């Protein structure tokens, strides 16, 4: 198995804005973007550092795996992710070494990556994610960013219209 690099360290947080007070403001890491990840029932803030990232992960439901982790263990490191050249070969090698896997076969994760998790029982208590980059990732990230931008624009337009109506109401009451 060939590990290319540490891709990211995921940290579960209760409040992304509060967590950014440390990771972005105190440490000086840049916030590259925030993604809503519906299939993981979470919102993720991405803070690149060198060739890796810190990911701040906040659950969006009370029933997600991230929410259960937060309830049981509190905020903190959730998992470490390694980029591999060939995820199927990596999983095969781990199975041969009797390593307990959460995912026997890769699934498509955030941004179109192929991902799989290794059970903490085999890693001395650390949830480990493996991922292989696919050609879909840049396209999927762009589509997510566009959806988020559309929601922000729509919300902003709604607020602006409401403010205008309020101001018009004030103007007509003064006559």
Fourth-tier CATH superfamily name of the largest domain: 2,3-Dihydroxybiphenyl 1,2-Dioxygenase, domain 1
What is the mean predicted local confidence, pLDDT?
Answer: 88
CATH architectural label of the largest domain: Roll
Fold-level CATH name of the largest domain: 2,3-Dihydroxybiphenyl 1,2-Dioxygenase, domain 1
Q: What is the spatial order of strands in the main beta sheet?
A: 2-3-4-1-5-8-7-6
How big is the Rg? 20 Å
Structural class: alpha+beta
Which spans of ≥5 residues are poorly predicted at pLDDT below 50?
Answer: none
Q: Identify the CATH class of the largest domain.
A: Alpha Beta
User: Which term fits the overall shape?
Assistant: elongated
- Cα distance, first to last residue? 78 Å
- How many helices in DSSP terms? 4
Strand content: 25-35%
Q: How many domains make up the 3D coordinates?
A: 2
- Return the string of H and E elements: EHEEEHEHEEEH
- What level of helicity do the residues show? 25-40%
Characterization of the model:
By secondary structure, this protein is an alpha+beta fold. The chain has two domains: 3-134, 2,3-Dihydroxybiphenyl 1,2-Dioxygenase, domain 1; 136-175. Helices cover 38% and strands 30% of the residues. Strands 2-3-4-1-5-8-7-6 form an eight-stranded mixed β-sheet. Strand 7 and strand 8 (127-132) form a beta hairpin. The model has no long low-confidence stretch (mean pLDDT 88).
Topology:
Elements: E1 3-12, H1 16-26, E2 33-37, E3 42-49, E4 52-59, H2 65-73, E5 76-84, H3 87-96, E6 107-108, E7 114-118, E8 127-132, H4 137-173
Parallel strand pairs: 1-4, 5-8
Antiparallel strand pairs: 1-5, 2-3, 3-4, 6-7, 7-8
